[in-house]
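Thread: quick sanity check before group meeting

JM: Hey all, I'm pulling together slides for Thursday and realized we never actually wrote out the predicted structure for the chain we discussed last week. Dropping the sequence here so it's in one place. If anyone has concerns about the input, flag it before I start.
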Amino acid sequence: MEPRGHWLKTLGGAHRPLDADWLAGAPGEEPSLPEVVARHLGQAVRLAGEVRAPTGDDRELAGRAVAASQRAARRLRDQEALAAAGQMLDDALALADLAATAAEEQAELRLERGTVRGATGDLSGALDDLGRATGAGRTAVRAQAWTELSKVHVVFGQFAESAAAADRAIVEAVEAGDPALIAQATRVKAYPPYLAGDLTGAGRLLDEAILQARRAGQARLVIELRASLLPMRLYLATPLDLLRAEALGLIEDARGAGRRSAEASAQVSLGEVAWLQDDADAAERHFAEGNRLSLEIGFTRKRLWSLLGLVLVAIAREEPETARRRAQEAIELTTEPDGTADVEAELHLAEACLAGGDLEEAAAAVARARAVLQEVDVFSRARLQRTEARLASASGDPAAAVTLLERSLAALETTDHRLDQLHSLVELGPALRRVGRDDEADAVARRALDQATTMGAHALVRRLAREGVVGR
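JM (edit): ok, ran it. Output follows.
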């Protein structure tokens, strides 16, 4: 085997790297096999640095490696290979100083890496990269950085910070005059009204975002925005047959455009539709497919909703241990450095524990959920109160259960969360009957049955019948 120093002479110094030229083409040309080029050039620069001080040729080669790595990352991200894209961007930024990459170009690299880090669950890294990118000189880079920052703040539960970032994103996007940037910034502007329960207002913003994306000719972005609308339409209690048709149409379009992320979202929505239609087998298939697609892409955090759907399926099948394993996986997936996990993951763990009769662990999960719940999160607060009501009932305190369910319903009735209003009604009827308030129970049951029937939620209709609140 020849010594490494000899091989390095063929990659830099007095001799131009023949194989790198063959792969990358002349400087400025678009290469083929960009990931191979980027790895090859990056390795050449690193090996050179092990045996000599950087030369002019090394710096020029580093510049080519940075450019090749960025091209490769964009190609990989377009293919939704996010983990590999992140590695390419790590390589590019590691060589940026040696290559004397301009500050504006480094800001763009940080924007791209921060976006990938946010999608793959490296939230602290995303905050750092995106925070730096907001200081870029180019308006378009600042607009995108503020947009992505808004998303990351939501995941952290930092809703005020998310709203402020979304406001900055809109200002920068309008200044840039780019409809695609305006569309993405408008999407994150939908978070605050959504969290407050104004689903109609959030839907209007998403419709506006779709309009801007179409104006920009961004067909793939349109598909992603349609995927964001699906769960909102579910929470608005859209008839399930109509919602199912919309989700199937989105899946077809997403597959045609190679948008696995949008397909994953649509699969989760289909799983929720199937679960409400009392088809546990179909629900499991859709949730599992959404989970598989998110795993393929590298969307770590996005798997949460697939896993929580699988928890519900296991509970419906009276498989509490399976439900608990799935919920624990969701806990592990969302646990932050401070040890806290997503409120919805904790609540689903509590439900799984209740299904298995483990009241102590259910109470512990409820307490953890209560500790991390954000004041503005109407949706999760209502779910928390329903879970607390089930725990109270299982613990022999039916009066407390009624109080909690009445609070849950009262909070939801000031919002557009019609599906969750229905869930609270379905549980309130039997709870009222257990404390002897039969007339009120009958009225609540009739209201729940009317809404469940209109929506086509056969699982809820069956539950009402099973608990003896239908036909009175």
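AS: nice. Confidence is low (pLDDT under 50) at residues 1-32. The two ends are 88 Å apart (CA to CA).
JM: adding both to the slides.
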